[in-house]
């Protein structure tokens, strides 16, 4: 069973028996609280009751035991879906005359790209520190916390898709040369004048997305002029994050 995030507790039930308590999850129904021991059951019930009283969402892990769905763990109120086994993803992308390898890590609804920046001689450490902040902030805020994955029609229990950049010196998904700008950037060559918006576009290539602007070298390109981050460095739209929910066997929705 997957980890569920953003679940709401709308009801509680218990009786004067040992470790026999249930919670009603919105749009899902009754779930039995783990009865391995009275202590575990009591602790889970206390957290669930607090969440219900405050009307805040919880994350939880559940499993099937006989005919019952049993909640075995309840996490903090904003676990973000960064759970489950991490997967290293890598695949070839071919679009028109261009080709590259997309690569990133996905753990639940957390997507991470490890990038090794290779600055040209003469670019100072101070400049690089500033650029790393600018680029990471730009990428993570543009791509993350806008969509989520869910497994039922009502889309309660939705895990938020978040994106992270890790600046690494080895074990990278992508190596990026950094040169003195202004210049024309691409996925593997950035420059010192690049904004967070530009970095967010190149990040999209790392995730496997082609360009969406008109290109004389690619008259058949489709779609183009979409107004998205892959066209003009602006918006991340649902279809650009759908592959990550698809991989979990879930549907994508706007937060
Ligand atoms: Zn591009």
Task: Please tell me the CATH architecture of the largest domain by its name.
Answer: 3-Layer(aba) Sandwich
Kindly give the count of domains. Answer: 2
Sheet with most strands: strand arrangement: 1-5-6-4-3-2
The CATH class name of the largest domain reads: Alpha Beta
Structural overview:
This protein has 255 residues and is α/β, with parallel strands linked by helices. It folds into two domains: 3-74; 87-254, Collagenase (Catalytic Domain) (3-Layer(aba) Sandwich). Helix content is 24%, strand content 35%. A hairpin with a 2-residue loop joins strand 5 and strand 6. Helix 2 crosses helix 3. It is elongated and about 70 Å long. The structure holds zinc ion. Zinc ion binds next to helix 3.
Key features of this structure:
255 residues; alpha/beta; Collagenase (Catalytic Domain); six-stranded mixed beta sheet; binds zinc ion
